Amino acid sequence: MPGRTFSHPAIQVTDLRKSYGSFEAVKGVDLCVETGEVYALLGPNGAGKTTTVEILEGHRERSAGTVTVLGHDPARGEREFRERIGIVLQTTSVDQYLSVSETVNLFRGYYPNPLPLDVVLEATGLTEQARVRVGKLSGGQQRRLDVAVGLAGNPELLFLDEPTTGFDPSARRGAWDMVKNLQNLGKTILLTTHYMEEAEYLADRVGIMVEGRVVVEGPPQEIAGSGGATLIRIRLPDGTAAPPESLGVHPAVGPGTYEIQAASPTVVLYQLTTWAVENDIEFEDIAVTRPSLEDIFIEVTSSNLQGGGGKA
């Protein structure tokens, strides 16, 4: 994020590989996640994200490469390493008859320097539900409790696996605020998600994995901005003649609708509106759309899955 500075890497990965027999699931991944950063690892199903994250968590052995997480090799399974990380899986199971506070305190008791209960509840938005039984929580509140459990031990690094899957838009926005709260506490977060808008909103940087490789990496705004032409779409009143071909306009779906792929959108918009004013035409609709992270994701995953792979 603009103005944010990082001190040293929380995660450093070089030429990470993982094979299952003759099948290579992870093919030479290089990865660096800075301390205090939110890093989103994206990719289609089967890209190698889960395998990579499980290696970083110490739950799966690598075949080759070097991995350092908070200064530790996670493959050693050292207790100090375990105490410094938090893991929030897609699905977890806690006692449905305990209250939220009792559940968080239970897990706080497993760590030498846990976060205070009120800090955990405030960061995850569960203060008002402190005395509510787990079984009475809504789906979104249950997910917040999953994060609270992962946060209870005061981890320096938090792994969040698909934190808002199945959420409605309102609940998803609330979860995003929660993640921002965690970063404000100084936590480093490695996030996996299938929601591109989630990655755009939360992540300082993203990496897109395809077939075991990270093919694109960088700040989401820069990745989206690298997608080339801006799309300008207009809709004209019924019976209006089409704009001149010299403006680069092409018919689009819908009556009286046209679009332009513009490398210089300001110039094209000036030419288009000048033509409209000179001909006394009022656009019924006009939209200017720059490529999104989702557009780039679809483009790079499609091209790499078709054999155009390689690092970018």
Can you walk through the features of this model?
- With 312 residues, the chain is an alpha/beta fold.
- Among the domains are: 9-84 and 156-225, Rossmann fold; 229-289, Alpha-Beta Plaits (2-Layer Sandwich), CATH 3.30.70.
- The protein has ten helices and 13 strands.
- It has helices at residues 49-57, 79-84, 100-108, 117-123, 139-151, 169-184, 196-202, 220-225, 265-278, 293-308, and strands at residues 9-20, 23-34, 38-42, 64-69, 85-88, 157-161, 188-192, 205-210, 213-218, 230-235, 250-251, 257-262, 285-289.
- The protein has a six-stranded mixed sheet with strand order 5-6-7-3-8-9, with helices on both faces. Strands 11-12-10-13 form a four-stranded antiparallel sheet, covered by helices on one side. Strands 2-1-4 form a three-stranded antiparallel sheet, with helices on one face.
- Strand 8 and strand 9 (213-218) form a beta hairpin.
- It is globular and about 75 Å long.
- The two termini are 21 Å apart.
- Mean pLDDT is 91; it is low at 1-5 and 308-312.
